[in-house]
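SEQUENCE-TO-STRUCTURE ENTRY
===========================
Question of interest: how does this chain fold, as expressed in backbone structure tokens?
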Amino acid sequence: MKTIFAVMMFSVVGFSQTAARVMTDRAAARFLDQATWGPTPESISELTRSGIPDWLGAQFAAEPSDLPDQPILDSAGKSNGNLGPVQAAFFVNAVNGRDQLRQRVAFILSQIWVVSQVSVRPAYAFPPYWRIFRDNAFGNYRDIIKAVTLSPAMGTYLNVANNRKANPAKGTAANENYARELMQLFTLGLIELNPDGSPVLDSSHQPVPTYNQAVVTNMAKVLTGWTYPVAPGAASRINNPPYYLGRMIAVEAQHDVTSKAIFHNITIPAGQSAEQDLESVLDALMAQPTMAPFVCRQLIQHMVTSNPSPAYIRRVSQVFTSTQGDMKSVIIAILTDSEARSGDNPAAAGSATFGHLREPVLFLSNLARGLNATIASANGLNRYAAALGENLFNAPSVFSYFSPMSRISGGLLGPEFQIYSTQTAADRADTVNTAIYGKLDGSTTLDLSPFIARAGNADDLLDSISYVFVHSGMSRALRQAAKDAADAAGTPRAKAQAALYIVLTSSEYQVLQ
């Protein structure tokens, strides 16, 4: 850790060596766009003076935000499926919370380890599930795997709960849903990877699969014998009914105790308990070299760029492997890598393949933070996110809102563009229009006064917009378009609104560079 911070202090592009300012405004804003829900004038100023190491240290120590527990039953005594308060609280934390980095990482992890209200209806299931990622965002990936595996929410979503061993007399077999997705989506992927994310090839130059159907079947056997926690006042059963507080418990009578051959020619010995089998699988997963590039590429894609170079993936994967999945070290490696920081220097040659589209939740949070939002617990910001294709805690499938392998025209990876269409493009512009010229909802107030105060001088106005929203790097063409719009308006407010609309609907803002 000390070595990493030392390298950060002296090698991050964009740093100056003056005592008063450690970073440029541009470098600070770019970093904050990668590590938080969006830069603000205050956070940019703070980071330019503290530098990345001190900022990271403060974020690692910040008090975690929380989501409110929900009642199990609604006012009519029926199962409560109203997620609105949880979704609203999420946006309050994103806009106002001090633990910005923890929140971003937790949200990313929740997009990898999907549980959705599409299948898990009770609202009270989601705050405990979210806390798995909040509490382990800076922990160890092995702990994440175990906590999710034993989460009753995942128990329902992918049929881990009440998954019984095979009964030949009845012709039943262990359910394979979680076993398959645990490998395919959460840890290993479909093919073995080199540390740089490239596929491992066999003697015929074909990609080597990480597992086959026989492994899925045996992994399902490993994961038999778990049931829901016992609800207060209820009696424990072999198959407990759904209850979403606490972790699942083992029922050894329903666990398959035969030996099981799993991935990479590893055999789980016979006679082990459900807990021992799970620990054996966790050890086996953490020992697989393909997991580091598989997981790290997705983390890089969400935080920095959709198309990281093989060298970038390799450097971060090496940290994952050498620290045995330490998330804090991996996050530091991602955010301080030379590829992430190369654009901090405006004189550096830019890459047309660098960056990623702001996904809807990130877009809305960034917009609110940059426009000085006052946001209440009853806000309706998730309605806008849902309209743009990202309804919080309601991913359409286990593959989340968009696939990390989704490509755009021309072949580049562009995951977030999978939910970007002509309709959602228009909806984004409408959202900006509503934010600037109207009101997002009855409890959210945006304050344009810092921009209005500078509207008497077009250059000052554009500099302030560029500083907050596009890393002090507005192109000449965008600047001219925003200036023309402002010049055509009459009042200072109208000038600020016009310029903001042009910038916030532009590709330079919508696509993070």
Summary: The beta strands are 226-227, 249-250, 260-261, 267-268, 356-357, 511-512. The two ends are 28 Å apart (CA to CA).
